[in-house]
Automatic annotation (TrEMBL):
SMART domains: HTH_ARSR (SM00418). Residues 1-95 form the HTH arsR-type domain. Keywords: DNA-binding, Transcription, Transcription regulation. It comes from the Bacteria. Gene3D superfamilies: Winged helix-like DNA-binding domain superfamily/Winged helix DNA-binding domain. The keyword DNA-binding applies. Pfam families: HTH_20. This is Helix-turn-helix transcriptional regulator.
Amino acid sequence: MNIETAASQLEALGNQTRLRVYRALVRAGVDGLAVGHLQDRIGIAASTLSHHLHRLIATGLVTQERHATTLICRANYAAMNGLVGFLADECCADAKAPAQDDAA
């Protein structure tokens, strides 16, 4: 993952409402949630939800799929794992190695 993608995704999740939407979708699992159920769960207006979903979709964190008249939203777990991995891969990269005990 490049730093621009990571920054964009982190910026999208930096909004409290978008983070709540994303967490609800992550918790829902691979089946996702219908937009109406997601709206009920989060408790926000449809237009507000649409705005926040658009941002999450644009950054690749969420996908949508239409089933007849129902729009299903799903967390993109590959994108989530990529972002978490991007952060974790750098953990302690510049830390000093522990000193070796010469007496051993």
